[in-house]
Write a structure and sequence with these properties.
four-stranded mixed β-sheet; 2 domains; globular; three-stranded antiparallel β-sheet; 15% strand; alpha+beta; 10 helices; Four Helix Bundle (Hemerythrin (Met), subunit A); Ribosomal Protein L15, Chain: K, domain 2
Length: 342
């Protein structure tokens, strides 16, 4: 199954029986040539609409009827929301979710487990990157990895949310400081900047987190949960807090490694990014999105084993598993480790 990516050069998406007809502009100007293709609905798992492609109401209603989520992202990578059918309304589950959201013991326990996994995965990313390179500062690298191990243990035993967020913030700063050494000279990473991202590296990190967020929200809603009720990002307004929570362990393990792969292999180069004159932010161009999503899909579908001898999985199955773990915690008081990178 596949994702259909629609960008602002899409002139129309129409419903034709059991297929979508996608008309795309292939040149500039009013008389620019068009490219038309059809996409069978049975081949689709999700649709991502970037910018302002022209999508008809019959298309959106058909996607809802079939349970195919359509995610909306601005051309600058800002999450807008999702349209999907309410085919799995589960009042009892949502009531339980709302009840547990007010239980500080439950929320803290979930958040401890989540941030432990995130920091542990950050450390694993650095270890994996170092294994493929001859480091000139091996001692410093090892020191930072040891610090992250210590921060992960502290996170697992934090006494409240404020302490946990403080540990997470310090660990993230140390991690990103070390991660900067693995970016190529053409697209350097000099520290995390957001809203807006100030360079191509940050633009691609923010973009990847947003796309990952959309996928997680779709899975959450498909399981009858309220995506706005989280346990870590509890004070976030007008954002899918639970989706933000559950992607935390996947940020380093999936998104950060994806960005490094794309930039180090020069799949995207500086010319694939542009500076917005209004806010000075750097963003991925429309020309850069096609190669980006090709690699994104390949990474999502890559098979791997969590432990030696276990059956193989992929990141979409990992995301599904993370949501199911949260449900078991809600309904059975069964706390399980979140995704730990092998």
């Amino acid at each position: 199954m596949a994702s259909l990516i629609l960008t602002s050069d899409v002139l129309s998406v129409r419903l034709e029986s059991r297929r979508l007809e996608v008309v795309k502009r292939t040149g500039d100007g009013p008389g620019a040539p068009h490219e038309k293709r059809t996409v069978p609905l049975h081949d689709l798992d999700r649709v991502v609409a970037i910018g302002q492609p022209s999508i008809t109401i019959p298309v959106l209603t058909k996607l809802m009827d079939l349970g195919i989520p359509c995610f909306f992202v601005s051309s600058h990578g800002r999450w807008r929301g999702a349209v999907m059918g309410d085919n799995n309304l589960n009042a009892r589950r949502r009531i339980r979710q709302y009840e547990q959201a007010t239980d500080n013991t439950f929320c803290l326990g979930m958040a401890q487990t989540l941030i432990y996994a995130k920091i542990r995965n950050s450390r694993r990313v650095l270890q994996r990157l170092a294994a493929n390179r001859a480091l000139t500062d091996e001692r410093e690298h090892e020191s930072i990895c040891n610090e992250l191990k210590h921060f992960a243990q502290r996170a697992a035993n934090a006494e409240n949310h404020d302490e946990l967020r403080g540990i997470e913030g310090i660990a993230a700063a140390r991690y990103f400081n070390r991660l900067s050494g693995f970016f190529p000279a053409e697209t350097p990473f000099k520290g995390r900047t957001r809203r807006p991202p100030r360079d191509p590296a940050n633009a691609l990190l923010s973009w990847s987190y947003t796309i990952l967020l959309g996928e997680m929200e779709g899975i959450i809603r498909a399981h009858g949960l309220d995506a706005s009720i989280g346990f870590l990002h509890t004070d976030t307004v007008n954002r899918p807090s639970l989706a933000l929570d559950l992607i935390e362990p996947l940020r380093p393990a999936f998104a950060d490694l994806l960005v490094l792969n794309i930039l180090n292999h020069k799949i995207l180069r500086p010319e694939h990014f542009e500076i917005n004159p209004e806010n000075g932010g750097t963003y991925l161009t429309e020309e850069g999105r096609k190669p980006y999503f090709m690699v994104y899909e390949q990474s999502m579908k890559r098979r791997f084993a969590l432990k030696a001898g276990e059956s193989h999985t992929d990141f979409r199955k990992v995301m599904e598993t993370e949501v199911c773990k949260y449900i078991r915690a809600l309904e059975l008081n069964k706390f399980e480790p979140f995704f730990l990178m092998p």
